Hints:
single chain, about 30% helix, about 30% strand, alpha+beta, four-stranded antiparallel β-sheet, 3 helices
Amino acid sequence: MKLFWWGCRICLCLCLTVGVLVGTGCATRKADWAGRVGVYTYDQAVVELGPPDKQARLTDGTLVAEWLTRRGANYLYAPPTPHPYYGGYYGSAYVDTGAPDFFLRLTFDSAGKLQDWKRLAR
């Protein structure tokens, strides 16, 4: 029993160490979009973010472009539900939940400079 307890503790410490290392290794620096207004160009955005998912050119020459930054997800699961007659639980009730897609909308003036930015969820 004592050996089992030490094995669990070692496994837990190893998992926590790996989790911390992976979590800090994946951290990236977020872009300062407010600081890029007026100097950042559409061409730089395409190089950094890739081609936009949607774009539209307005009559005044303004270009509005959107990039998908994070895909949403839908979850369908059956939580345990108490059985009304026999006791115990069964999973007949389904719950559908979801998370929205997240977008970055960048607006460029007619000269191609960043004019405005916004994060959207839908």
